[in-house]
Amino acid sequence: MLDKISSLWPEICLFSVTCVVMLVGLSSSLRVRKLCSPLAALGLLTAGFLVVTTEASGTSLLPNMPSYGKLLTCGVGLLLLLLLSGLPDRRYEAMVATGRTRFSALRTVRAEYYAFFLFSLTGLMLCAGATNLIWLFLALELTSLPTYVMVALSSQRERSLEAGVKYFFLGAMGAAVFLFGFALIYGGTGTVDIDQIAYAIRGQAQDGGINTITLAGMLLALLGLCFKIAAVPMHFYTPDVYQGAASPVTAMLAFVPKAAGFFAITLLLAALGWGDLTGHGALPSPIGEVLTVIAVLTMTIGNVLAVLQTSVKRVLAYSSIAHSGYMLVALVAGPGGSGNDSITNGVAAVMLYLLAYGVANVAAFSVLSTLERAAPDGTTDESDDFADIRGLRKRAPGLAWVMVLAALGLMGFPPLLGFFAKLPLFASGLAGGHVLLVVILALNSAIAAFYYLRLVSVTLLESPDGAGRAESFAMTPFANRTLAGYIAATVIVGAPLVPLIDEAYDATRVAQWGGVYNAAGAAPSPRPRPTPGVGEQTVEEPEAEVVPSVR
Amino acid sequence: MLLVLILIPLLAALCVPVLPKKHVYGAAMLGTLGALALGVFMFAFNGIDWLAITGDAYTDRVSWMPRIGLQLSVGVDQVSGALVLLSLLLGPITVACSKTAITERVRTYYGWLLVLQSAMIGVFVARDVVMFYIAFEFTLIPMFVLISIFGGSNRKAAAIKFFLYTFTGSVIALAGLLYVAWYYATKISPPSVGGAGTWTFDLETLKSAARQMPAEQQWWVFLALMLGFAVKVPLFPLHTWLPLAHTEAPTAGSVVLAGVLLKLGTYAIYAIAVPMSPGAAVAFAPVVAVLAIIGFVLIGLVCWVQTDVKKLVAYSSVAHLGVCVLGLFALNPTGLKGGLLYMINHGLSTGALFLLIGMIYERFHTRNMNELGGLARRMPVWASFMVFFAMASVGLPGLNGFVSEFMCLLGAWQAGGTAWAGLPGGTPGVLGPAYVLIAAVGMVVGAMYTLMMVGKVVFGPLKTPEDEHGHGGGHGGGPGGGHDDPHGHSKLPRDLSAREIGTLLPLAALCLLLGLYPKPLLQAFDHSAQKTHQLVVEAMKQRAAAAGATAAAGTAGTAAGKLEGSGTAGGGADQ
Fold first, then answer.
1. Are B164 and A450 in contact (CB < 8 Å)?
2. What are the extents of the domains in chain A?
3. A-B interface: how many C-beta pairs under 8 angstroms?
4. What does the DSSP 8-state code read for residue A132?
5. Which of A386, A426, A451, A458 to mutate to test the interface with B (most CBs of B within 10 A)?
6. Complex ipTM above 0.90?
7. pTM above 0.90?
8. SS3 of B423, please?
9. Which of A394, B478, B494, B504 is deepest in the core (most CB within 10 A)?
10. B455 C-beta neighbours (distance < 10 Å), count
């Protein structure tokens, strides 16, 4: 127990900060209230520091994933925080400042906002470090539940409420599906511990085939998680919810639940195993086939529909669906052998891609959230249409270039980070023998180039149209801050800082890939710091049979 | 040293955004001239005997992302060296030709022009496929910006079409290259600690790895690569982006596009696609050759009906590169050398034609042949250059176009099957006289449309859009450079200025030199071409061995048939 807690210092730190932020945000003094975002930033930085300094422990399947996942969370979390920090209570604070209303702790949402944001990130960190299914489920819910509220709170408009409700009900359904899947996995393997599940599945595979209940459970769990990553067939909510929420929240939706979903899927697939004992081979039937179909449909549908959109947010929503499809290709391909730290490691490719996608996507949304236009009812509204960013270069060159870099990064254009992240996706797919899948991926990249290029040309090349919408734009007060952050982020994370990418790769290396698998036959391979609990259990029951027992 | 060569224009490009506007042109000039000077020094005066060396010179490797096997690996052989020199030469010329044409947003313009310069050099010197791909792709962005901001009225559509066509093709080519890399890592390289092989993107290694693939896989790799590179060339059915892009691009953009960017495609075919899968190249040579000939003849006819001079020259690029590809796919030394020389020649002459058209457009703001005519009376200097480069482009003996076009066709003629191997000059190959005879029609068509254009624009009664404003009068001509036309709205003299002549003269000199004495360049290409040819011959031997006796008999029969056919065809050609 204690060793588990000791691996959770970053989460504990973030959680404590969250509690403080929740209280601080209610203060009647503006100066104190304004401490919310610096405190949150401090919390994320400290958590990041703790990740680096303390030893994270996850499953023995993917011992390096927790620390990478937590670092990723802190990094992208900071970017998201920059973006969010102007949003909550902006109008309300303006009213308070002008004396039109008195401050009331009951009406402010600032505290809730930052708290929910940090809760969600805590959940994401916990996902990355999950070692058993119950933990995983709770972490996933901790990631998602705050986002439902954030969507609904994000703007005063009805469509935000609508989006929040839609997101909540579909999310609840998704959660129900994967929870049912988890239950079936427990039924099929007799354990909720992911290492043990891997072990049991290995045993079943050697005894003439994986249990049908286990497979059905896996299938349901993966389908349910498709909601989190916005993959077909659970993708329907994406465009509406992304459009309904305020841009900063959308940026968060596009990254946080998706990353959580991918951590969870990676863990489940790792437990299921890619073929033979070394992790080299194909996913067992029918999971492999189903995931392949999902990947193809997800990227194709996402890209084709993105081409047809007129709203930038919907384009980005569909493109985020497509990106899930790309990443699934690498997951179908798998890590390609134990200790594989070359470019063909699909799991590492997904981890790297999450970073590239996260940064570029947040950058794209940052541009949208720093622009606003006059709404028909006299107030201002956030920008959304292509018309809104048309000729942005003339009005705000910095923002325009951020958009261009973000679009090219999402496109996977060399030498931006997106390219170096997409390269391993291609390579791992090929190495897994999925040539057709890679060709589809390549064709989809080409389709995607069409609408990303549209973003580029609209912002960079066209002149603002005189239809009246363009004039009404103004940069929101917090534009400069986010702008600086994003220019730095998108440029820096490109090719020049390649050592950084290398580090990321190193962190995600599935070094002890064979750990549990080998335990079936031989001694477990050494781990950086074997945690007594998980490690010993694996060794203790080398011939464990499938006995449903509550541990 | 090559890395320095790439860095010089890039550094200049980085300086441009912070310089005051009036110094931007100077900085761009300095950057391109500096690169040219270094290039000339490296290639001509640094004591490297280009006729003797067999491998790459100036090789340099910088480890970049060792984890996934990426490195900055550069080197030049004779072929890429010549192409690097060509792009370096066009650098200052493109800068100079934009001096008066581009007056707004000069920082953006020259900055991207310099970046483009770096990217192009990068493609030619890359010896690592990922670096190659990065440079290959990165040429798109500057060109996209140049066309879409500084282009003509339809510039947006042109830029987007250009980008999407090329990007789509090259993504598929990337998949092909990665497949080869994966093949090397799993099947050939010694397994490393983790069980998986070493992963490398080294071009030379991958070339030899690809050749060890089973034939069928080689075919797929070849198809994937060709799809990517043929778009860039552009080969016949994939060419539709080119006329639009050319027509809309600013003059410098067109010059670079015709001069160097199209060569990226042919260079990649020569340096990557063919050496990786010579067997597949042999198998597909007839198909590619047919496409190339269709391009040559059909697009030639399309040229004939154009009224826009620039569009005409743009289409003629498609036609000319058809000959170039035909020569390359003859796969024998003559054809390969012809194709390589054609790349250089086409860059010089078509680049110059685009310059000339740009000069006209700057003066009259039209490129419509119906509105222009008899310019020889108004601008004799311009007219002489125009006639000169048109002749070079058509292939008048004594000028450069003739040598390479003749060699391409000769190579294709000689590559007439195994039966021809015994004849003097005959080499094993899969094309033959039949191909050349049809292609010869294209030559006639080429002469027709080029001469028609020259006739309309240069000769005949003087006709300019300004006539109604009282600017007519075909006498006097231009006094040469320097003097401003007192009646003109622009600062440009009536005939060419010294700066404009300065951009044209080096190209003209080289056209003449390569027409009269192409021997050094051909000798320099010889080694590389022989090497490629050897690969092809080996592949054909393997194929023949695999095909067995019955198939061999069949081939002999076909070859004999071809021999017969070519006899009559030869007679036809003599008439």
1. yes
2. 2-540
3. 114
4. B
5. A426
6. no
7. no
8. coil
9. B504
10. 13
